[in-house]
Amino acid sequence: MSPFLKPGDGIGLIAPAGYIEPEEIQAGVEILKAEGFRVKMARHLFGRHRYFSGTISQRIKDIRRFLNDPKIKALYAVRGGSG
Fold it and tell me: What's this model's pTM, rounded to 2 decimal places?
């Protein structure tokens, strides 16, 4: 079995640090979908708590949810930063 991503694999989008607006990632999401990936957005991907994408608890839950989902083969952090 190949360790690389292939069309049909699920990719989970997370925002483990700063918040982001939907339009900032729309083009990237469309590219991933056009390549055949199943894109799943974290529950708090567009959340906002101060300058973060959600509370620390919400962000941790998003990551754990995807790590425990056998259909998700990769996690993409939509934004870098501290926090």
Answer: 0.90
